Structure formats: C-alpha cells, structure tokens
Amino acid sequence: MKTLFSKIIDRELNANIIYEDESVIVIKDIHPKAPIHWLIIPKIPIPTFQDLQKEHFGYLLAMTEVIQKLAKEHSLEKGYRLVVNNGPDAGQSVFHLHIHLLAQRAHNHDF
Ligand code: AMP
C-alpha cells in the first residue's frame, strides 16, 4: 500500500510542490498551522523517525540541506521551527517520515 506522500511523489495525487530533487520533495501542508507550513519528505517511505537506520542517513542529510537552502532563499534564517511527530501517540497521521517546517509567526509555539 503506497503512502499518501508516495502517491504525491509519483504524481498520482496533486500537491503544491515547493521543491523537488532526486531524494527529497517539499510540499505545502494542506492545513497550514502558520503562514509558512511546508513538509520535507524523503523519496523513500520510511514510516516513522523511530524507523530510521544508518543506511537512511543520506536522506536525512539531503533533507537538512534542502531546509537550509529553502530557508536562505525565503529569508527565514532568523527563525523557523521544525517538527517531527513520531508515532500515533504524538499525533502522526501520515506514516511516511516528514519534517514540518513552520515560519513567520513570532515566538508562538502553538503551531
Ligand atoms: P503528521 O500529522 O505529522 O503525520 O502530518 C501530516 C500532515 O500532512 C498534516 O499536517 C496534514 O495537514 C498534511 N496533509 C495531509 N494530506 C495532505 C495533502 N494531500 N497535501 C498536503 N499535506 C497534507
């Protein structure tokens, strides 16, 4: 069973794509909790953060580089928040690893 995000990567579902390369896709969250709310998604369906293994670290590095590059391009270096919900008890709803990037709401961690 393909994950929702794998369907977006394979263009079976539409999404608002901010950035894409061979290992990462970044889309706008469909229910934004801040003026900027993006999802940084590896192009491999690792279900949760807890499932990460050594062999996946190339993807983590690629996600980090993409976040830093987008932050520069969108002038977000002074502040953005990264969130990973790990597992159902943390409210994870899509079981394909992703990092939420939230920005442009000052000093408010309600999102
Ligand atoms: P999480 O709850 O951490 O698993 O995050 C999943 C996120 O995916 C939520 O913030 C949803 O709003 C978002 N989401 C669900 N479906 C879509 C979609 N089709 N396109 C973009 N974002 C989505």
Task: Name the CATH architecture.
Answer: 2-Layer Sandwich
Count the beta strands: 5
Strand content: 15-25%
Give the integer mean of the pLDDT values: 94
| Major beta sheet summary | 5 strands, antiparallel
General shape: globular
Q: Determine the structural class based on helices, strands and strand pairing.
A: alpha+beta
Give the SSE map:
Layout lengths: L3 H6 L7 E4 L3 E5 L7 E7 L14 H17 L7 E3 L15 E5 L8
Antiparallel strand pairs: 1-2, 2-3, 3-5, 4-5
The structure holds adenosine monophosphate.
Adenosine monophosphate (AMP) binds next to loops.
Description:
The mean pLDDT is 94. The radius of gyration is 14 Å and the shape is globular. It has helices spanning 4-9, 57-73, and strands at residues 17-20, 24-28, 36-42, 81-83, 99-103. It has one domain: HIT-like (HIT family, subunit A). It has 111 residues and is an alpha+beta fold. 21% of the residues lie in helices and 22% in strands. It is built from 2 helices and 5 strands; from the N terminus they run H-E-E-E-H-E-E. Strands 1-2-3-5-4 form a 5-stranded antiparallel β-sheet, covered by helices on one side. Bound molecules: adenosine monophosphate. Adenosine monophosphate binds at residues 4, 15, 27, 29-31, 39, 85, 91-94.
